[in-house]
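Hi team, as promised in this morning's meeting, here are the two structures we talked about. I've kept the exact order from the run log so nobody has to guess. The first one is mostly here for context; it's the second one we should focus on when we meet again. Sequence first, then the predicted structure tokens.
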Amino acid sequence: MRTSDAFEELVTCAKFGDGTPFFFCHGDYTTGGLYALRLVEMLKCDQPVFLLNSYLDPDPKFSIEEMARCYLPHLLAAQPAGAFPLGGFCNGGLLAWELAHQLESLGRRVEFIVLIDVRSLNARLTIRIIASLTRLIARVAPKKIGEKLKLHVMRAIWNRLGQVSYYGPYLRAMSNYLPPKLRSNVVIVLSEEYRVMKKLPRVRVLSFSPTHPTPWNRLAPKVHCRYVAGTHHGAITTHARELALLLDGLLFHGAPQLDQLESKVDGALRRYASDPAVDPE
């Protein structure tokens, strides 16, 4: 699975170690996960870490479900027995969610899944009803019309809602993906900019906060939420140390202990802010 160039492979072992490996879908189709490699270097945990690399130019018809099926054999080979801790950033979070679903369908246990700044639009009941109706109409419509409906309608709805700030090659796959219910616990990590957006007044009838954590509650048994410093990209670059501390806490203790980790993470960040030369363990 490992080569010298992350662009040449689907899965890269970015950190060797003992114990249950952590699989992270970095979602970076421009630099091959450079930010993720730096993030992994900050982790203190002993577990191996595997990065799931993005397709550089996916076919427009390539769905999140089909992508996950391509990665699945690599995950099963790296972890033939035991549970799977999964995580993902942005479009990679949706891939991680679908991988969790496919693993659970095979009878494998997913320890937890971490979603970092992942859009929750299609987790909302209203959007899911619209998407289901669109799929139903596409099935009974003439073939060419049906294909156009499946490819374009949900992306048009995302645009109409005025919440699309992402225009990359994964937009169509993201807008068409309806995340199914999971049996595992979920940790939602949002950058501070979305806390500010959440407080802004909304003037459109169907205008939603794209990353609001509440919609995920109906799709998983327990959902934790944590805000980290920075913007969508700043949280994984400028403020990556805070994110690394949070991931370390999850990998050491698991998602159910997230609430108890809050004070530890915050205390470590305060020590680092007062003296950056000190390793914030």
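And here is the second protein, the one for discussion:
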Amino acid sequence: MTENNSKSTRFVPFGEALHLFVPAELWDEYDRAASEAAAEPRRPSYWGMGVREWRDAMEVYSSRSDLRARARAKAEIALSRIVAHLIERLVAGELTGVVQDDPPFGPWRAIPSLSWRSLEPVDIEAGHFRAGNTQLRFVHVVEGRYETLVDIVSSGPEPKSQPPRTGAPGQPSSMYLIKREWEERHARGKIESSRKEQAGVLRNWLISEHPEMPPPTEKTIYNQLPAGVWAPGPKKGGAQSTSDKKNSGHPSGHKVSN
């Protein structure tokens, strides 16, 4: 087995190593699976189309949910095979993972080969891994063995992850869960009698099914629901509100012809 301690050693970023040290046939398999997944129609948006057109598009989209899930799963399995192949070569010592102390000028140290069995990927493409409270960032790969090992500490408390956030502007959101549940319910015709009631039901669903996610307010959910699904109701005295007139028929406020 060759040893690489010379200044001419090539340090390959982990994401690039996935292409350089993995057989082309595994990537061909992934490319085919990814193409099949990409060919599946995207979830239709109710912006820019009439309510009936959107409902028809959603019906088609929902009817292909199993095919879509299988295509995505196939692509994920193909990618996992690529990563597993590189990891096996790292475990066998054919390749060595290395990290740099105090980049960009610090020394490089090797990750013990058997440690790859317990390392948890955080960002494969960027080469970020962790084991317990040890964080390994921007891992590179060299051919053969590389001496000067890095200590892997697998015991101790796990680093605290950032709590999920509700989805206020500019923040990661739990709203995608609500939107997905709403679209599935809408496709099945399981719709509440009013937009406000629907918002409350969806909020309660999120609290029940995903207690780890902070729920948005009912008003936030209400504003995200398409107004055109429910017929606008008159205000007291029979007059229709300006907002109802604006939202009636279609989320964009345009009148929808029957």
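Starting points for discussion:
The longest helix spans residues 65-92.
Confidence is low (pLDDT under 50) at residues 152-172, 235-258.
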